[in-house]
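Our platform keeps sequence and structure together, in a single record for each protein. Nothing more is needed to write down the fold, since each code stands for a local backbone conformation. An entry from our holdings is shown next, in its original layout:
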Amino acid sequence: MNKVDLIQALKYSNNLSKSGAETVINLFFDKMADALSKGDRVEIRGLYSFFVKKIRWIYRSEPQNR
């Protein structure tokens, strides 16, 4: 299911206009992206949880390439 399919499903299940359904979907993903960019965790119960994992950079040299 892609974004267009999600908009269509929301439109038909809740009797919304296409622009209204698109606004809801865009708002949802924008708020989710904002939370993740702040380092917050986003959890959708029963579906998935999203978070940004910070890893430290490790420099490893390979002796055979020197």
User: Anything to note?
Assistant: The longest strand covers residues 42-44. The CA atoms of residues 10 and 21 lie 6 Å apart.
